[in-house]
Amino acid sequence: MRLFIISSLSLFFMFSCSDDVKSYPVGTDFIEDEINITIVDTFSIKAGTFKLDSLVTSGSNRLLLGSLKDAYFGDLNSQTYFQVNNSDFTISSNAVYDSIGLVLNYDTYYYGDTTQVQTYKVHRLLEYFEPEDGDDFYNTSKLEYDETVLGEVSFTPRPNSATDSVYIALDEYLGEEIFNKIRDNEIINTDDFLQYFNGLTVIPDTASGNHVLGFNFKSYSDLDDNSSMRIFYTEDNGDSSEDNNQVLDFFIPASSNQFNSIETNLESTTLNTLSDSEVTIASEDTEELIFAQAASGICARIEMPTIKDLNAISDESTTLKAELIFSPLKNSYNDLRPLQESLNVYIVDSKNRIISQLTDLDGNVVYAILDQNNDEFDENTYYSIDMGNFVETILNSEYDLDYAIMIQFESYSNVVDAVVIDNLGEDNDSIKLSITYLSY
């Protein structure tokens, strides 16, 4: 990567002689002062990777299940926890129990190779469904569950259809016990049921599959396209011409009653020293690459420490345009692990604490926008970010702001998408900031 460390003594000389700095005098025929439009794209860039301590995953409205193995991001495992309930606890005395099962309805999200067989195992929670502290569950949250497997299924995913689902037959003893307690009026309302049944967790087999799937749920009974626990039974009403098959549906009552627990193992990767969010691993220590992965909280950090040196050129100047460009590593993405059309950009301080989401000069939220240029050979794929407001903030501040930008995914709490950013600097794949400004 070309590093251009700007000092106050050599600033004018370096800007005048560099091939990467272009100045255009404007309006010299009609005003005495010289006005220049200058383009600078040789700023020093410090890039690295850090990991957020935790991410809120309750309220994400998606059951996220599966496991991934990746050379850059190591092993990831997503397990889901949820509470189930119902508002109707009425079963007639002549009803006969049939079976119990868990239905998981696809929401069409997937990441990874869905041609591989995956195995899910269902367990019963042993503790009440509530956060350890505060109102939220996080990607690091856990609840105790019974080691006994209530149900298990192995399947090849079909995630492209939101009307399709995965069915897991559950333990018959459990189903019959719930059925009898309701029929015999031992459970007559929501409170009774929640005192008896804390909820479920679904665990993917990490030895099989290399993908993560999304399943939807609605906070009301909907047998057509909802994820829920269901008890099937029949009622003998004396009329053989009628359908006597019945379903008691136990759905997830609210998005806050579900969360995804994301475990990552980075031991085999260059990120194996990531710890708390204040620790940033420089790109020099990760083969000149930086990384971002949703759900795990891995974030890319890009710092531009020499922006403020532009003030040494002119007492009066204004930014006309500022753009940051970075490229995803070639061959690190494909149809199974695609690039997102846009990424979120946040301003962070020296300790990687989020200041705000990046905005433009008009106050609109700014994203990193993907440009692939319909390039068949993947030679010109990059993301661009409007940095105009960020640059103006740095230049106009009375203080030396140790601000950087953080790259993350928009739906970071319920997807596992990832991007590897190239910072080699020996070709066009380096991270580059270009500023066009008017001085007078």
Rg from alpha-carbon coordinates: 28 Å
Overall body shape: elongated
Major sheet description = 14 strands, antiparallel
Mean pLDDT score: 88
| Helical run tally | 4
Helix and strand sequence? HEEEEEEEEEHHEEEEEEEEEEEEEHEEE
Give the beta-strand count: 25
Class derived from helix and strand content? mainly beta
Helix content: under 10%
Strand residue percentage:
35-45%
Span from first to last CA? 32 Å
Low-confidence stretches: 1-19, 26-31
Describe this protein's structure.
This protein is mainly beta and 440 residues long. Helices cover 8% and strands 39% of the residues. The strands form two sheets. Strands 1, 2, 3, 15, 16, 17, 18, 19, 20, 21, 22, 23, 24 and 25 form a 14-stranded antiparallel sheet that branches. A hairpin with an 8-residue loop joins strand 1 and strand 2. The two termini are 32 Å apart.
Quickly describe the structure.
With 440 residues, the protein is mainly beta. It has four helices and 25 strands.
Question: How are the SSEs ordered, and which strands pair?
Answer:
Layout: H1 11-17, E1 21-26, E2 35-40, E3 46-51, E4 63-70, E5 74-82, E6 95-113, E7 118-124, E8 151-155, E9 165-169, H2 172-183, H3 190-196, E10 200-204, E11 210-216, E12 228-235, E13 245-251, E14 258-265, E15 281-282, E16 289-293, E17 298-303, E18 317-328, E19 342-348, E20 354-357, E21 367-371, E22 382-386, H4 388-396, E23 404-408, E24 418-422, E25 432-439
Antiparallel strand pairs: 1-2, 2-25, 3-15, 3-17, 4-5, 4-11, 5-10, 5-14, 6-9, 6-11, 6-12, 7-8, 7-10, 12-13, 16-24, 17-23, 18-22, 18-24, 18-25, 19-20, 19-21, 19-23, 21-22
